Amino acid sequence: MQRAALFGSGRDAQMAAGDLGELLVPYMPTIRVPKSGDRVYKTECAFSYESPDSEGGLYVCMNTFLGFGREHVERHYRKTGQCVYMHLKRHVIEKVPGASGGALPKRRNAMLFLDLETNGDLNNDDFEYEDEAKLVIFPDHYEIPLPNIEELPALVTIACDAVLSSKSPYRKQDPDSWEEELQVSKHAKTLVQMDNGVRIPPSGWKCSKCDLRENLWLNLTDGSVLCGKWFFDGSGGNGHALEHYKEMGYPLAVKLGTITPDGADVYSFDEEEAVLDPHIAKHLAHFGIDMLQMHVTENGLRDNNIKPRVSEWEVIQESGVKLKPMYGPGYTGMKNLGNSCYLSAVLQAIFSIPEFQRAYVGNLPRIFDYSPLDPTQDFNTQMAKLGHGLLSGQYSKPPMKSELIEQVMKEEHKPQHNGISPRMFKAFVSKGHPEFSSNRQQDAQEFFLHLINLVERNRIGSENPSDVFRFLVEERTQCCQSRKVRYTERVDYLMQLPVAMEAATNKDELIAYELKRREAEAARRPLPELIRAKIPFSACLQAFSEPENVDDFWSSALQAKSAGVKTSRFSSFPEYLVVQIKKFTFGLDWIPQKLDVSVDMPDLLDINHLRATGLQPGEEELPDIAPPIIIPDDPKDRMMNHFMEPPDIDESSVMQLAEMGFPLEACRKAVYYTGNMGAEVAFNWIIAHMEEPDFAEPLAIPGYGGVASAGAAGLGAIGLDNQPPEEMVALITSMGFQRNVAIQALKATNNNFEHALDWIFSHPEPEEESESASDVMDMENNANANILAEAGSEGPRIKDGSGRYELFGFISHMGTSTMSGHYVSHLKKEGRWVIYNDLKVCASERPPRDLGYIYFYRRIPS
Length: 862
Prior knowledge:
It comes from Chrysemys picta bellii (Western painted turtle). By secondary structure, the protein is an alpha+beta fold. A hairpin with a 4-residue loop joins strand 10 and strand 11. The chain contains 27 helices and 31 strands. The longest helix has 17 residues. Helix content is 29%, strand content 17%.
């Protein structure tokens, strides 16, 4: 099926073959041999879901090794000037019938693409595939069939062979390789554990240094519970676990919340990577965590507990009901890459929202045209690609009528290539994240927040689709002794509702079921039919609005610790309200538990009564006095003593805030005044103080001779007032950009080479060379589309309105915990409910609204 070189045939083709070496001479400097570490994308286009299976095949650049579909390869050629591409095409063919009527095996070139994914439907008796490869030279589309070892120059032959035999660029994402990527820690066998009597409870953990309650790590030497790194998805901490290692040298820590009978996430600070600990059960038992008993419980003695959940799987997936497949725009499924259903369920819901459709699919031509040199590593490009894949209908086409008749006659299905595989998207958005980069099941709620924060960090101009989820929460904290109050505000993106188990309406049935279940277990009889607790939604809403106790509350009125209570209300209502039912917890035996309940979620929701009211007449505010700073006795901790040394401002938190678009000095003040508690806490300080006239003034600390910006602020000044390094300028100018553009890009991105290239492509019109450093500073501070300009008295970019909503989607989870099981989403489109279950997209007959985990509501226009 190979065509002759140079569009010729016969004698012309032979003549051309003899001149192949001369033909390729001008392009030899641009042809590279893939080195170790180079990612070769020979299975998927960087801008679409075209592949060698597609009609137009796939073009792989022989310099960058990026893959492009037929409609996108010209753009890459125009942008980069790269002319030589390898064209890969897989042909699906019918097998030739043999004399006995059966099909003859006929696999030619079957091993050409060693790492190319194959469609399972092709393994039947009637179909097989042929693979074809050729070099294509742009712009004239000269074609050179491969293999062509005798006529091609040696370098080209070696490069082609290396591309064809290259491994998947996603191998670390593959299910079979996840564990292989981890090595046994050199400390596992000889780890010394202190006999200090520390016992870790199954819940209620918090960092022993900053009281944070997420991303917590248990040090396996002394039992310290400390926070990890802060992430933009709202999770993380202040790096106290790493600080503890640097101070004490205790190398291994396990992440709390990841412990299962099969293992846990272990990190070695000394080896600076995630590791395996073969003795993890013994190491955890030292602190009272009995993994071995957990294993017996889940897989042995209580195996019957899992069986009733089969009904949950059947109900949520609508098994046993013949569902009508849906095709066309907006009805495209997503392939499960192995525990990636959490990602698919969230993205199906996200791209059913018009604001996300407009931001990414509506702006697709602009995003693609100004994408960086490596579009596989650009968030907006990959979001636009995925959105177009889901919404275009290009990958969701119904079978032709003739094919349907043939399938019915033969009672079989021809190969179908409907649906998209989000492998490139998952590899990028999970990069560097300890949880999402693994191939284990994850919490859809955590991924939703992770995705929203990626949207925040990569917003396109002034348009930020995540604004539709953002709202302000007013927290009213009251000192129980003085009765004085404090009002604060924070930004949030979802409403978390507790499950009010005590309000179950079928308590008698539950008691009777539990008795029957225990009797059946004792007698080894089949378990009775499962009875779920029926929880009124109103009870969950009431539990959300009730006051909660504040741990370790320090009253500024009493200048001492006191009892305190906190209530939360909405300072604003978002355009789209996301509601999470908090179904997951830990039991006393450390086994992750899921509350298998039915909540009567309403189609229409009114939460106007939860509108915040602010300080009320007769209420007296708590004095604005910070807790006293305790001077530690240990001289190692003197840096925490603000009276002995100048304050140490956490510059990593400062830069994280500055990247959001806030003025640098405001970020420094926020981090300082919140006691280096991390970027998230400092962000809340910014929201509360951004209307003050001295918001962006330099930080001035009494007793230190004025402005406290000299030491650490020098880091922020680099690239703004100073000239960028000449070698970086030369490197960018060597790529064809003007010198003044290179300097401006480096100054605007703090001399980050990759970010500077992205800046250049996102600013196609170069600024005047005379632009002052202050203008560049202003541009950097507003790079994320004018957060400050949009900020009003209620905070940044808030779309307030009525608190009346209607349900349009929900994500359901099946299984015993967020670390296992399966997710599907139900979305209401064109007046009817549709179920999205990986690649399967069908009209829903019985949407299980009462068994959802995350619900999506849209505001009802007033």
